[in-house]
UniProtKB/TrEMBL annotation:
It comes from the Bacteria. This is Major facilitator superfamily (MFS) profile domain-containing protein. Keywords: Membrane, Transmembrane, Transmembrane helix. It comes from Agromyces aureus. The chain crosses the membrane at residues 32-53, 62-83, 95-116.
Length: 125
């Protein structure tokens, strides 16, 4: 399938699952499973992005690009909990706003990733 297709599948999964939990379904096993599936989609996407670097980056720049992507991933691990905490509605104990922001950012990433083309002819993405 290639890393681009896997990235798009991952982003579509994240957007769909964040939309579902943004609707504030009743607490229970299905909601928990939805969050676990969303985490799995995020992990799948991380692997696909790293796989995408190799064929789409000049060979002498792969290390530098991988470092920048890893640094962005590190920030990505710290930033969402801050957003979720800042957008939490204490009166209703709701994180819906933060989840809706995830839907918006994920949808934007899906559009951008879908528009990206490989710079090198013949490379599989």
């Amino acid at each position: 399938m290639g890393p681009k297709v896997i990235s798009l599948i991952s982003l579509a999964g994240i957007v769909s699952l964040a939309y579902i939990v943004g609707q504030q379904p009743p607490e229970g096993i299905l909601t928990g499973v939805t969050f676990i599936l969303m985490a799995a989609a995020m992990g799948l996407g991380m692997g696909a992005v790293f796989a995408w670097i190799g064929p789409s980056t000049p060979k002498d720049k792969v290390g530098a690009v991988t470092g920048v992507v890893a640094a962005a991933g590190g920030l990505g691990g710290d930033f969402p909990p801050l957003v979720m905490g800042a957008t939490c509605n204490a009166e209703t104990n709701s994180y819906a706003l933060g989840l809706w922001l995830l839907v918006i950012v994920g949808a934007a990433a899906l559009v951008v990733a879908g528009m990206l083309r490989d710079a090198r002819p013949g490379a599989k993405v």
